[in-house]
Specification:
Helix content: under 10%
Shape: globular
Strand content: over 45%
Largest sheet: 14 strands, antiparallel
Distance between the termini: 30 Å
Number of strands: 16
Order of helices and strands: EEEEHHEEEEEEEEEEEE
Radius of gyration: 22 Å
Number of helices: 2
Structural class: mainly beta
Strand order of the largest sheet: 1-2-3-4-5-6-7-8-9-10-13-14-15-16
Length: 309
């Protein structure tokens, strides 16, 4: 029929979405560690170097690392993909993530219930890239703290409350700042960036609950005045996101239905005369379940994502 597209919008098939090889250990002394991750590209299957880190344990509880890995910012991003509650990480995390960068990391655990991480890096989402790629003016700073109020921090490496585990309550937060590359030909790189997050989780068999709130604030972003396209002004933007998820074992250590709520508010200001901006909002719901054969080592996960907007 004339005017009707013949393109089929539905696709069915199979995909190996995530394949990784991990090599880790120490060289000579247990104080000198290494961690290398090879991953296959989801599009063409080519293998590439995803993470490469060498570390040195200065004293018990204090370690310094150099290389490429994820910045210590969003907790959901830092939890391994195989230990997620849903098939994929939330859209909130994918929008606000700083992902991987290259730089220096400091990991400090002054006591068993506290873990502090800090990084000096090339900036958010900057790996792999050359240091002269005009991403940031100077090394960006990222810092995160996690505190266990009950249980242990090891229980926060996933979200699930396993039968026999004690009550676990973990709260955390992170800050990130990077200065834009002044004089860069790409004006988007001129913007400074400040981001923060707070999160917390509770694991009490058979229930688990996790929540996070995130803010991202690009500063001095070049904005064109639509009334005068030759006029540029600099504006500050405010983006926010929130996530709440919960699961429950209806069959202990076997069947675990879960639910996730997400909210994203993006400052879409295009008028430099506007003080409040225009927010583009999205609300997403996820329903699913895990069936565990051997905890996270072997499991089936199915979920459905529903975007209300």
């Amino acid at each position: 029929e004339f005017g009707v597209s013949p393109i089929d919008e539905n696709e069915a098939g199979f995909q190996i979405r995530r394949t990784k090889l991990n090599f880790s250990g120490h060289v000579g002394s247990p104080k000198f560690t290494y961690d290398v991750v090879l991953a296959a590209d989801r599009g063409d299957g080519n293998v590439f170097l995803e993470d490469v880190v060498v570390g040195y344990n200065i004293v018990d509880g204090l370690e310094v690392e150099v290389g490429r890995k994820k910045l210590p910012f969003l907790r959901e991003e830092l939890i391994s993909s195989k230990r997620q509650l849903a098939v994929e990480r939330s859209s909130v995390t994918e929008f606000f993530t700083l992902n991987r960068s290259e730089g220096i990391w400091f990991n400090w655990s002054p006591v068993e219930a506290v873990k502090i991480q800090a990084a000096l890096s090339d900036g958010g989402n900057a790996a792999p890239s050359d240091f002269h790629s005009d991403r940031t003016e100077a090394p960006s700073i990222t810092a995160r703290i996690d505190v266990s109020l009950a249980g242990s921090l090891k229980q926060a490496r996933d979200y699930t409350a396993w039968e026999g585990d004690p009550l676990a309550v973990v709260v955390g937060g992170a800050l990130h700042y990077e200065a834009g590359e002044s004089g860069d030909s790409a004006s988007v790189n001129d913007a400074d960036q400040f981001a923060w997050t707070v999160d917390g989780s509770l694991e009490m068999f058979p229930f688990n609950v996790y929540a996070a709130f995130i803010g991202s604030h690009p500063m001095d972003v070049a904005v064109v005045d639509f009334d005068d396209p030759d006029f540029l002004t600099n504006e500050d933007f405010d983006n926010y996101g929130a996530q709440v998820q919960a699961g429950v074992h209806v069959i202990p250590n076997k069947l675990e239905p879960f639910f996730r709520f997400e909210w994203i508010s993006v400052d879409s200001r295009t008028d430099p005369d506007s003080e409040t901006g225009v927010d583009d909002e999205a609300i997403l719901l996820t329903f699913g379940a895990n069936y565990y054969l051997n905890k996270h080592n072997a499991k089936f996960t199915i979920d459905v994502d529903w975007a209300l907007d």
